[in-house]
Specification:
alpha+beta, Four Helix Bundle (Hemerythrin (Met), subunit A), 2 domains, 16 strands
Length: 397
């Protein structure tokens, strides 16, 4: 069915484009161009791109074509003198040859480019480190031979740093010590991939729960939901094997049965939310509560639930609440708009100027083919009085 629709719509688009070029009447050419725009919009719908289809109809088939028709009717370009021979007779064959050359070059580029198998280029991974290792003081973190975070206290996190993909050894030592000679508190191998972001969380309790690294691999792209955001939660509570994250207002379970040392990513809608962590299967007393906060769309939030031993052997709840702005998805309208208004603003303006010059050139080339304008004879509704008539005089007394 899709192939049949594609063939029918594609044939109509090609025929309408050809009729637009060979029509002598400029109004007919504009109408054929509108039909071609409608066929392209239908093809966008078949590619599951409704936004581009609506832009095609609204901007091109609507506003732009109204402007073209206004210029055509204003200049009288729809009137052609019968049997008129243009002065530039060599113009048509040259245009046909250039069009064929362009078609061959574009076909070679599309075939050799393997557009159907090409994937978008993925960016290098982003890395940040979160320190919730109970019993450890201020730490320095090294990714391979390079330091990725310095002087992180308990409950703190580093900024995102762009790193090269590959396998690295992540090492955590006390702040100020040489990583080559000091005994690492944490030493674990991780693999970084392109197109992903990583929140590396050091969890555990020195002397009891062995330190380990929780790798939360997530994306910084915009949420798939309208007015949505991405959230990542990490269970760093050694004494809590399984926990549930719930919305206190709606009692909705956002994340269920989250084990110790496990991370999970999910999507939320923007708004004001109050969240709490409960033992799995219990709805009475929460383990920890997140204060009421405003969650904004197209952001990434990271919640790490941990606890820290106090001098009196009691434990203090620690909730690491981090927020980062999301990045645009490759090929999305936002991504294309930012590229047009940053890297490609000059070519975009040059293309607009080229289209303006082309429209003016088309008007100049067709100016000699316009028929003569009819002479308008002004007629008065009330004819003037006859001047030869004498005005009546009053009778003499």
């Amino acid at each position: 069915m899709e192939l049949t629709l594609f063939l029918i719509v594609g044939a109509i688009a090609i025929v309408s484009a050809a009729m637009m070029l060979i029509s002598e009447n400029a109004v007919y050419s504009a109408l054929f161009l509108i039909l071609n725009f409608a066929c392209i919009a239908f093809l966008f719908l078949m590619l599951h791109a409704p936004f581009l289809a609506m832009v095609q109809i609204t901007v091109y088939a609507g506003a732009i074509m109204v402007l073209f028709l206004f210029v055509i009717m204003l200049l009288g370009a729809e009137r052609v003198v019968p049997g008129f021979q243009p002065r530039f007779r060599w113009f048509t064959p040259i245009v046909v040859v250039l069009a064929l050359v362009f078609l061959v070059i574009a076909s070679i580029a599309v075939i050799n480019g393997e557009v159907d198998t090409t994937e978008p280029r993925k960016s290098q991974p982003y890395v940040r480190v979160v320190h919730v290792l109970d019993g450890a003081g201020t730490l320095d973190f090294y990714l391979g031979d390079q330091r990725v975070a310095q002087g992180l206290a308990f409950g703190q996190a580093s900024e995102y740093l762009q790193w090269r993909d590959g396998e690295y050894q992540l090492t955590a030592v006390e702040a100020g010590q040489d990583p080559q000679g000091a005994t690492p508190l944490l030493d674990q191998m991780i693999a970084l991939e392109k197109g992903k972001s990583y929140s590396l969380t050091a969890v555990g309790r020195l002397g009891e729960a062995a330190p380990q690294l929780v790798t939360a691999a997530h994306t910084l792209d915009y949420s798939d939901q309208k007015d949505g955001l991405r959230a990542v939660v990490v269970n760093a509570l050694p004494d809590r094997l399984r926990v549930d994250l719930r919305d206190m207002d709606t009692n909705e379970t956002l994340v269920g049965a989250l084990r110790y040392g496990e991370t999970r990513e999910f999507q939320l809608s923007k708004g004001v939310r109050s969240l709490a962590l409960y033992p799995t299967g219990s709805q009475r007393t929460p383990i920890a509560e997140l204060p009421e906060q405003e969650l904004e769309a197209n952001t990434l939030v990271l919640w790490v639930f941990a606890e820290q031993r106090q001098p009196d052997n009691s434990f203090r709840d620690v909730i690491v609440n981090l927020r980062a702005d999301a990045t645009t998805t490759f090929g999305s309208p936002t991504h294309i708009g930012r590229l047009l208004l940053s890297n490609y603003v000059l070519p975009f303006q040059l293309v607009g100027l080229l289209l303006l010059v082309a429209m003016i050139g088309a008007i100049v080339l067709t100016h000699e083919a316009l028929g003569p304008r009819p002479r308008l004879v002004r007629r008065l509704a009330n004819p003037p009085a006859v001047v030869s008539q004498t005005a009546p005089t009053e009778p003499s007394k």
